[in-house]
Amino acid sequence: MTIREMAKELGCELVQDEFEDAELSGGYTSDLLSDVMAHARAGEALITIQAHKNTVAVASLANLPAIVACNSRPIPPDMIEAAREEGIAILRTKETQYQVSGHLFALFATSTDRAI
Amino acid sequence: MSPRLLASKAAARGVRLLALTDHNSSLNCPAFDSACRTSGITPLFGMEACTREEVHVLCLFGHLDTAMAFSEAWTRLLPVIPNNPEKMGDQVYVDDEDAIIGEVEYYLGVGAECGLDEIGALVQGFGGLVIPAHVDRAAFSMTSQLGFVMHGPWAALECVRLPPATDTLGYPLITSSDAHYPEHIARRPFVLEAETDELLPNGPASASGMDMSALAEALRHRPRA
After folding, report:
1. Average pLDDT over chain B, rounded to whole?
2. What are phi and psi of A89, to 5 degrees?
């Protein structure tokens, strides 16, 4: 599933949509950026409420191509700009991390060409 | 940002007491010490530590040696995640002449294996003071990470804005620049009611450094919300 396909499936708003669409390998749900850096794997979407510029830096370092900001978190302009420079997608949803994680997990589970 | 640039810009803007608090490291403090002497500023040494909860906490020491000892101890609590200088910036430390003397290869923007409930005692054990950073900010603060200001052995709380929009539990409040770029140096200074000879009873060049209990006493007189 690509980032744009995920955005459509989850019904997310694409807040930063200047990026090269890419296949996602799964997702990682965390609000501690240290934890994301230590455990997230390249190609995963980051599901979080930490919506700030540092989230983009961590996503870049860990090669996470998309950030899904939950609970309708406001996205500050400098976060959007940083993500634009890195070509990292920012999606926003009113759903909680639990809902998004469950939804995404199920989507990947039913996809036959992707390991979770 | 060079310690020399920091000290000279701050001095030009009328700052008299200045702390260097790099993320999770005090490796630029020796150069900062020298730069402050040149610029006629009284230095404080330390770091902006990041706890396990990803709360930023200012750790301040009146003597370079204790700051460096604490920094070494703190380093052992940091997870080892290789830095990527192209993406995250290089993490260099410099000498008095701004020449690079080393580079930290593991990423310093991480949380240490030390909780907010532990860091106060740890810093105090080295003779330092603890001031939770930007408590009213939306990231890396007690309010962003915990939802509230927590009680602890805080000499003060640092706020982005005074009066703060959050309940600061009666702690003395300060502001500071949190300068990550030269143009931010010396923004949001605060007034500390203290005489130099109270803070430095043995003179500015003394080996004993700053009297941290005098500093703590001066901070106690800062306005509270």
Report:
1. 95
2. -75, 140
